[in-house]
Amino acid sequence: MRELRRLLAYLGPYRWDLLMGGLLVLIETAFELVIPVLMADLIDVGVENQDLHYIVGKGIQMGVCALLALVTGLLYARFAARAAYGWGANIREAQYERVQSYGFSNLDKFESSSLVTRMTTDVTVLQNAINGGLRPLVRSPVMLVMGLGLSFWMNARLALIFVVCAPILGLILFFVVRKVAPMYGRLQKAMDQLNNVVQEGLTAIRAVKAFVRGEYEEEKFRSVNEELMETSQRTFHFAVLNLPAFQFTMYTAIVLILWFGGGMILKGSLQVGELTGFLSYVLQVMNSFMMISNVFLLLTRSLASAHRVAEVLDEDPALTDPAEPVGEVPDGSVDFEKVSFKYRADAREYALYGVDLHIKAGQTVGILGGTGSAKTTLVQLIPRLYDATDGTVKVGGHDVKEYDLATLRDAVGIVLQKNVLFSGTVRENLQWGDSNADDETLWAACRAACADEFLRRMPDGLDTDLGQGGVNVSGGQKQRLCIARALLKRPKILIFDDSTSAVDTATEGKIRAALARLTRVTKIIIAQRVTSVMYADLIVILEDGRVHAAGTHQELLDHDPIYQEIYASQMKGGEDHGQTAQC
Q1: Strand, helix or coil at 360?
Q2: Fewer CB near the last or first residue (10 Å), C or N of the chain?
């Protein structure tokens, strides 16, 4: 309940719509509760005395009350919808903003499919709690209290039937809610699993088709889909039990009232109009009990969703700005001082251990190592995508923790191992590097990345639509566009994480030559090919998360057995391979 109260703070300006909606429900309920009193007078006075004028007058009053109830009900729907969907939009925005502030270690705790469910399905549940639950939440207690009061005012003896029925209805509600409450949490987790399979299957659809694994993926989807179906069936099987139970109790109460009320009419202690009006209040009171039970079920489900949403909002970002951050990165020097790192605090082994490495501003550094040697992990510590577990990482002579995060990352251009392009045009993607870049600047970056070669062949050039995730370009073209985007940042440190693996050696040579002209930029190149790093000022060999050796190409070729083995296996005795080509 605490999480739900906290989320209500995100109503913002829509709280007035919520309050207005509640007020309109009260007015609507008051009009509806007046109608049975008017009906009783119409029967007992107008019909009994055959007074047509009195009957017409009471009928008009009832019609006016019904019309006013309709108008207030329509106005309520307008205000409730604004409050519910405005609130949902604010919660989604707060979640998305929170996720943007997460470090990589925070994102490791949540599956992307779960985050999608929490921003969509869970928020929809909360919206429905307002949209569908506000009216009965306000209306039911008013109808219950006023209905019971007017029932006792009309006939206290018949109203005692409520005293017997109310505890029975309360017990039914208690057992239903107690059974269903934990099942809603399992239902949302089943939704997470379904979204995960759908997302994974659609993202990897080309691999699925290439390996002819369509039937396997269909079976996997069928499994999670059936699990969601069965969980939903079990949950709502118990949730709807309250309806027949409440109806049985309600009709039993009506039968008892008709039985005892009929006897009182025969004895002359009760009039027909009073019994008719009393039955109207009976229906209203019983319906109020029914609505209260539905509100409890809505509330129970919304509490499960509120808890999941609150988990996202309560997650403390692993990386925060210091109180007095350094406002500028002086140069591109990078220093690792006895740096060790592990992805989780409870991990048994370090991914990096005891790294001492010093890179001067403007140097070109190559990093080689086998799969799992923590090459990517090492460079992710530079723009502070992760924080070192032990030791210090310095950029420009300052600990990276002393910088404002935006300032540090603006000074570091990184082309990730997995190339990411976004829906939209080439221009829109490149302007991630510099939002104000004109066409001349964009083409200059594309020439440096050798992306102009294929862009000029496209009919729309920079305005070519890339499709979702860049599906309209090849892997090598993606890499070149990502390199151009990083160059547009004009960073002081450029990191290439195996970012030329999909281009041919001639194109790689042209890119390397263009990078060599950036003399004031520190370039760190992670590669699998010796030709990608053999001209670097410093080559670092990583093995099992440790610096095995560091030196120039010739120094390592003369003294380091691992480098000698890599060189021999790739070059096959020829040093002419991969000579720098000119653009």
Answers
A1: coil
A2: N
